Amino acid sequence: MQTLDGAGKPLADVVVYAEPDSPATLARATGTAQIEQKGLKFIPLVSVIQTGTTILFPNNDRVRHHIYSYSPAHKFDQKLYSGQAAAPQVFDRAGTVVLGCNIHDRMVAYVKVVDTPYFAKSDSNGMVQIELPAGARYTVRAWHYNAAGGATAEQPLSLKAGETGATLNFRIALKTLAPDDSALQ
Q1: pLDDT at 85 (0 to 100)
Q2: Peptide bond into 44 cis (omega under 30)
Q3: Distance linking the first and last C-alpha atoms of the chain
Q4: Rounded distance between C-alpha atoms, residue 98 and residue 148, angstroms
Q5: What is the pTM of this model?
Q6: What is the DSSP code string of 164-179?
Q7: How far, in Å, CA of 150 to CA of 64, rounded?
Q8: d(Cα 98, Cα 138) in Å, to the nearest integer?
Q9: To which H or E segment does residue 136 belong?
């Protein structure tokens, strides 16, 4: 799969996930992920996880951070801390979670929490690869934090028994950034 911006250029950090049209019981995640604080930034800027995943927030800066989210999918508030002191957070509801720092206003990150185990994030060439079981129909969705209107693109996909892959392309129109917003990228 490839993700492109409105001008047809490769688009990185697009979350692509496939939801089976007739969902069997999908295993719930029990793993962990990490969003580091380094150089007064969250790294990575965009994460995608399955519901039930725990995220660790190590602070590798020499200053303390106070991270939070007011997003309905996962609200939390980690008071000032440094090192590994922040409590891990379990993300148990699907949705988009925007992270911020009360001390450093320009620090922002995005966590897309999905119910399906079939997901990936596009690389710098806009490429995404997801292994899907054959013999099923899916709705494949593509989400980008800067999509115009907050839209999530979607396409149907049917994989017949024995099929090993399919190619989909997503074109996502982006919001126009004001000149002073470019530092947020």
Answers
A1: 74
A2: yes
A3: 23
A4: 17
A5: 0.90
A6: -----EEEE-BPPPPG
A7: 32
A8: 27
A9: strand 136-143
Model confidence pLDDT, tens digit, residues 50-95:
999 999 999 999 999 999 999 999 999 998 888 777 889 999 999 9
- C-alpha 52, offset from chain centre: 14
Q: Residue 179 pLDDT more than 70?
A: no
Q: How far is Cα 46 from Cα 124, in angstroms, rounded to an integer?
A: 13
What is the Cα–Cα distance from 177 to 185, expressed in whole angstroms?
A: 10
DSSP β-ladder status, 32-34 and 76-81: unpaired
Classify residue 68 by burial, with Cβ atoms within 10 Å: 0-12, 13-18, 19+: middle
State the Cα–Cα distance between residues 116 and 127, nearest whole angstrom. 20
User: 119-165 pLDDT, tens per residue?
Assistant: 999 999 999 999 988 888 999 999 999 999 988 999 999 988 887 77
Backbone angles phi, psi at 180, to 5 degrees: -80, -10
The token duo for 32 is 């962990």
Q: Report d(CA 178, CA 131) in Å as an integer.
A: 38
